[in-house]
Amino acid sequence: MLRLGFPVIGVTDLDRAAAFWSAALHLTVSGEWASDGWRTLAGPDGGRVLGLMRSVSPPEPRPRIHLDLLVDTTDEQRAEVERLLALGATDPGWEDYPAEPDFVVLADPDGNVFCVIDLSRAPSGG
């Protein structure tokens, strides 16, 4: 039977990406499947949550698939965006926000965009 696994992000620097995403999402780097081209990040229960794969292709500026990171309030969104920026995320200069967005678009240190969504204001239709 076919099952959905977990998201995988292509990155150029596995160690930098593992440090960023493990700190961002409070995950740990697992030894499972670790190699020169792969890192597995695990949740508190040890389950696989996110894969990082070495990639030579550049990140897509408007990816069709991306990560949505969820928070419950506007204050929490603001605090998490500040924390993620301090960890090495960047503001990619997203120009397609709706009038009253419930999300903030950031990019990881490799330039992969993701959203921080305030569930108290969702959905914005973005």
Distance between the termini: 33 Å
**What CATH architecture label of the largest domain applies?**
Roll
The beta-strand count equals 7
Our Rg estimate from Cα atoms comes to 15 Å
Organism: Pseudonocardia nematodicida
Protein name: VOC family protein
Pfam family, one: Glyoxalase_6
Could you please describe the fold and organization of this structure?
The termini are far apart. This protein has two helices and seven strands. The protein has two domains: 8-54, Signal recognition particle alu RNA binding heterodimer, srp9/1; 67-118, 2,3-Dihydroxybiphenyl 1,2-Dioxygenase, domain 1. With 126 residues, it is an alpha/beta fold. The chain has helices spanning 14-25, 74-87; strands spanning 8-11, 28-35, 38-42, 48-54, 67-71, 103-107, 113-118. It is globular, with a radius of gyration of 15 Å. The strands form two sheets. It has a four-stranded mixed beta sheet with strand order 1-4-3-2. Helices cover 21% and strands 32% of the residues.
Summarize the structure.
With 126 residues, this protein is an alpha/beta fold. 21% of the residues lie in helices and 32% in strands.
SSE inventory with pairings:
Elements (H helix, E strand, L loop, with lengths): L7 E4 L2 H12 L2 E8 L2 E5 L5 E7 L12 E5 L2 H14 L15 E5 L5 E6 L8
Parallel strand pairs: 1-4, 5-7
Antiparallel strand pairs: 2-3, 3-4, 6-7
Keywords:
126 residues; 3-stranded mixed sheet; alpha/beta; 2 helices; 2,3-Dihydroxybiphenyl 1,2-Dioxygenase, domain 1; Signal recognition particle alu RNA binding heterodimer, srp9/1
